[in-house]
């Protein structure tokens, strides 16, 4: 099978779109570049559709690689016939391929292999022919020093027959089908672990069973974690009698002594070979599906977080709050550069609130602060209340900012390189302030797994998780665009076509030669060749540069078309940019070429209308209910302001201003059926919730979304 037909069999896309996208991918084009600047070639595919093509392209390549390895292995056994080779080559999935390879995939010592060495394969063939009633007499002819009596001979023959049954593709597929439709996942507690404190969070699964096909991904992953930690045992169960009967109907064609032997061999094959193998395969498949579902949730959450509302280029005072160790305070300029840092002690045990108020007031005046960012960790509420008591000369907006992952950043090499002379507390406070100014630019410095917006991130396939999250970060960075003159190495490394090494080269060049004045100058960066420039230029922005188009998503390859538009309208470029009345006069059809059509021309016009427009909303001030300080302050029926801080397949968690987040179960998000939680709430959305139930002992809060 060829690549394009393989992709077409898994998608609803047109053949031409797939062919052209595959060609672009083979030319080392990135997903953001293809979706943004090659719309005519792909038929206007978006990033998700191109991502599907990438996924199935990788699957196909892995399948072809496995085929080649299997064909070589069978060839080395001198067992490869033209018919068998054709079967291998025509396989369209790994499961069928591995089933075909199974008879040639002998382990060094199996019961069947031992029986063959003892000369019992002819006896097994006689039994499988099912024509004799004198099977014990026939078995007596196969005795030797290894096979002492007829029972030994028949047992050995049955081992060979068991292996044949196990290797039959039709039988394996029949049992697979039964497992997929009817399998139960069954759990039992490990008695010695029953009272372990860590096991209690899994106590729902101490004695649990349900159809595996209906087990939601989050529950399956919880069960797998409980098993991994040694608290429970997991097994797959189906109706054994029904499964055995189905196999017998396929294999047994007589009613004689041979049939009895085959029936015993079937039972052995089922219990010893088929069921363990296919149960593991089923659990592996269920794990892959659960991983995919969990990673999708994580990816959606991460995207919402990265595209969170930026405050923009403002002078910010950031506070990393604390009690005993004090509150670390930093002052940042519009570019996020650290100008000042110190520690105040407004809370117990020092209780120097008056000194803290004076210090914050003087810093706000001295550094012309426009906004204050407070981390949402320990002592956050108390610090927020303190700051809001201060009478500033000018209006100052106060924001509470998520600290998730800030400690990871502050101890990282990136943070050490940025602030080699400051400790982790200063770095953490700087990160909080920068997150308010631009969440995307700051959060790309942290391993996405550590941001805390998913579930079971340590249990899912780590390679798949990293790949998916990297794709999300890359998509977000390129959809917003990057100011090449202020961007950090981590941010630049996610720009289409750049990567970590070129990002370092860009920053080094910038430090040695000053700010870039034009996109054309980017070509002077060492090792940044024509391909990298093609892939990256449209996503890199030059603020206040020589050419207004350099601060837009118009690709340099389209500058000539804009130049022609400008000439035809008879006005300078500076007067066309942002001038809707002039832009509306442009007839796009007259600018179509062999490679550039209406989709790209519409994008160009949109950019000329609003060049460099940031698609993200602006940051909004939010205040929790000041009377709620801990879980004991909650009671049924309360309406509270909150912020969505995590989304799962079964609901979302909401921060109401205390240590414990409350859960809005999916059933409490709406009066109607909810298929997708993300259709009703988004990460960091400001909501009003109703308290349904408070379990103080288990520290659980049940909420409903208040409309």
Automatic annotation (TrEMBL):
Gene3D superfamilies reported for this sequence: Nucleic acid-binding proteins, RuvA domain 2-like, Tex N-terminal region-like, Tex RuvX-like domain-like, YqgF/RNase H-like domain
What superkingdom heads the lineage? Bacteria
Domain S1 motif as annotated: residue spans:
637-706
Listed InterPro entries: HHH_9 (IPR041692), NA-bd_OB-fold (IPR012340), Ribos_protein_bS1-like (IPR050437), RNaseH-like_sf (IPR012337), RuvA_2-like (IPR010994), S1_domain (IPR003029), S1_Tex (IPR044146), Tex-like_central_region (IPR055179)
SUPFAM superfamilies linked: Nucleic acid-binding proteins, Ribonuclease H-like, RuvA domain 2-like, Tex N-terminal region-like
Question: Which Pfam families does this entry report, sorted A to Z?
Answer: HHH_3, HHH_9, S1, Tex_central_region, Tex_N, Tex_YqgF
Q: What is this protein called?
A: Tex family protein
What is this organism's lineage? Answer: Bacteria, Pseudomonadati, Bacteroidota, Flavobacteriia, Flavobacteriales
